[in-house]
Write a structure and sequence with these properties.
The complex is a heterodimer. Chain A is mostly helical. Chain A has 19 helices and four strands. In chain A, 64% of the residues lie in helices and 2% in strands. Chain B is elongated, with a radius of gyration of 22 Å. Classes of the chains: A mainly alpha, B mainly alpha. The interface between A and B is large, with 126 and 101 residues.
Amino acid sequence: MGFTWTIITLVIALGLTWRYLGSYMAAVFEGRVHFLGWAERPVYRLLGTGPEQEQNWKRYAGSMVIFSAVAMGVTYLLIRIQGSLPLNPQHFGAVGQALSFNTASSFMTNTNWQNYGGETTMSYFSQIGALTFEQLLSPVIGIAVAIAMVRGFSRRNSPTIGNFWVDMTRGLFYIVIPIAFVAGIIFVGQGAVQTLAGTASFHDSLNGVTQTIARGPIGFMEAIKQLGNNGGGFLNANSATTFENPTGLTNWLSIYLLLAIPFALTYTFGKMVGSIRHGAALLAAMVLIFSVWVGYTTIAEHQQNPAVAAAGVHSNVGNTEGKEVRFGDTTTALFGVASTNTSTGSADASYDSFTPIGGMGLLTGMMLGEVTPGGAGSGLYTILIYAIIAVFIGGLMIGRTPEYLGKKIQAKEVKLAGLGALVMPIAVLLLTAIAVSIHAGRVAPLNGGPHGFTEILYGFTSPGNNNGSAFGGLTGNATFYNVTQGIAFLIGRVGIMIPALALGGALAAKNVVPESLGTFRTDNGMFVGLTIGVIVIIGGLTFFPAVSLGPIVEQLSHGKFF
Amino acid sequence: MLVHIRRSIILALITLILTFAYAYAGTGLSQVAFNNQANGSLTANGSTLIGQNWSATKCPGHPDGSCVFQGRPDDLGPYAANPKSTPPVPGGDNPLVANGNSGQSGASNLGPRSKVLLSNTQALVSYWHARGVNPTPDLVTTSGSGYDPNITAADALAQIPMVSRATGIAPSALRALISRENNGAQLGFLGSSYINVLQLNEALAKLH
């Protein structure tokens, strides 16, 4: 009953968000929202640029890459010197070189994979200035790239696709910061901690226990962690802890925030290209795949844990290992699917302890390329790449040059889309193959048997897709994983963003061909089906062999323990 | 190139200032509007949001921890450091200065077909059977945070034989207590219903 109402209320809230946040974001990036103009204009003056100075795709991509590198440098520097900085009540020293590289790369790319425990590693200054800093700007970079690519479809014969600095400023001022601030207040009101006062100690006279509790500026980091599809929490156990995610309401709010921007951006896309139906078609493809993943993962987690059953405890309660009582098994599975299908990677349970099929739902949700609905911005530009491939295949079937929104899709566009779709699987599979071939890779898993392999595969699938969730048993804080994952974050981010911007540039330069009787429709059920087919077939063909060695073998090993 | 670098540094600095403004404005507002929550929901006996280890509670004439309701076996200390130690000690752990090797929030991360998970679970089942309790899944599995402060009504009801024997309070009175302390799902549908172990034991202490 409770789960049904959770779904119903989410559908209603997200439906309204799709419509209204979607059109609001279109207005923001088309320069029709001005209520913070007094703050916006001085920023443009300082930057020496403004909305009237447009960039071609190469300059846009160059600005994006250089800004990302500078932001990554800020994070790296701050956590390396945190021992000499203020706001460090627990006197944490510098973070090591390899771990700092991994962390800076992870947060800058919107991944938020964490090879450290937050409450025992990072000072309050680092949590705010190094990490929350990236959590505010990295989703905006993603949204900016998506918007720039969409301009490729909405403009004709245009050499430019917008101004990166203006898109960044608008995204920060009008979208990310205000929404996160409101959500932060709700988190704290429900019990999330928000203080700079350091740890708290007390003695319980009932049981003689003395506890020292980690605290910090958690609640507002939590809000942007979920809204921006970041996923990196203040505390090691992330959203499973009561100080990050105290109640059923904050858990619902987290799921809502994860899905809000990625879904709404399809409306923004439809609005900007002048055809809401085209945005709705992408939304339909996302929602259909997402629903299937929610369905089977939830059913899997509602089964009893095999080890608990083998120990002689029989009940109709689902898998409780690694889960919190206040959320229950079904809502936890929904959270997990929402978090892994959106490139967020926050966790309100131990994903490592999910049942084999439940864990496979999380793993394969990422392997589909983070498009269902994907991360803030990254979901939209990646599904547009898949849509171009779908259009190309549709064009091959009917034997004419394919068009999408009146733009001819020719050899150059298909090559760029192919590149964008293949970068991630190559990085993930190659790195997994290297890890299982060398000692440094094989010592990391906590669990034995096929589950250990799944931990390694997950440990590269999540970085390669900029997700950031983990099968936490993997000991990633070793030089091999810190460095290889640090590279995987960058490949999975920039390796797709640059083809996406190049596509935007190539499409913007084209004229629009008038629709004719022979035009392949790209806003109907047939096209939705074709896009779903492309997403599932590319992901399935690429990853099925690897998945079959992990969760599938584990599921089939009835009665065996490893 | 140079102009990009200059702009990048300026925008990074502006964002850094905005981030601190965001965090400090949030902290200021939280401290004023939700002072108790923002500081960790602390009460006289600890935070209601952080599980505690009840298993070492002294119960004269009875095994330790049998005169109170226990939380989930979240003790990352002895439990994770030495899974073979029998019996492992169930109960919420100490989130920062843990009594074992952990020192931070976290789950067991053991897979569903893990031999270690199986032997841990079997040891926990024996622990409960020795106290006359027929355990529920929550009582033999660890949580996601490592300090889940809550149990379900079923988890509490299962412990009635143990608590009743050690305290001399009638099972019917304990059932009534559990039903009083049971928090329904928030707004009737968000998450699951739960009982806060600290509040349950505070109420139990008043029955003595």
